[in-house]
Structure to design on (182 residues):
């Protein structure tokens, strides 16, 4: 069963539904169609579906005062933003296994003078974290899932070399620093 519906809409009724007050204001005092331009006629008949719809919109920005120089519209105070310190991981490190401890060797940048207060070392039973705070940027080394548990961590510094000493809980050899992922 085919049903055909004729969907013709009276153009004047459509204009009334869309509320084209701005477009009707463009027409001026004369309501005669013969005096309307093609643009105004199209806007009146087709409303928002008119090809010329954008030409009928009014600008709602500040009025131009005729000067070419920019004009300050408003001022606001801004919050001061602290610069973020750059963080970089150490490019390389070495490690060695001892009977009671594991040592990790890290090269520091020789151009940056780092005091012991700027070296932060923390550890858990299966991980450790090192952060060296320099003036330009911070360097970090985070190693988790150590091969076996550790009881603590400390560091020694000589010129531009840093040695991290991890104390083992059990005295046996480590063949790798980090557990193999399964």
């Amino acid at each position: 069963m085919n049903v055909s519906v004729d969907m013709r809409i009276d153009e004047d009724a459509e204009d009334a539904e869309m509320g084209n007050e701005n477009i009707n204001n463009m027409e001026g005092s004369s309501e005669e169609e013969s005096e309307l331009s093609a643009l105004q006629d199209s806007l009146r008949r087709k409303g928002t579906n008119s090809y010329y719809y954008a030409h009928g919109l009014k600008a709602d920005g500040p009025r131009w005062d005729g000067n070419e120089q920019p004009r300050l519209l408003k001022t606001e105070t801004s919050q001061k933003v602290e610069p973020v310190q750059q963080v970089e991981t150490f490019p390389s490190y070495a490690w060695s296994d001892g009977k009671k401890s594991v040592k990790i060797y890290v090269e520091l940048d020789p151009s940056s003078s780092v005091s012991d207060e700027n070296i932060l070392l923390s550890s858990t039973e299966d991980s450790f974290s090192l952060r060296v705070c320099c003036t330009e940027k911070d360097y970090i080394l985070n190693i988790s899932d150590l091969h076996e548990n550790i009881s603590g961590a400390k560091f020694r510094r000589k010129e531009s070399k840093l040695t991290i000493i991890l104390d083992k809980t059990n005295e046996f050899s480590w063949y790798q620093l980090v557990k193999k992922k399964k």
Notes: The chain has three helices and eight strands.
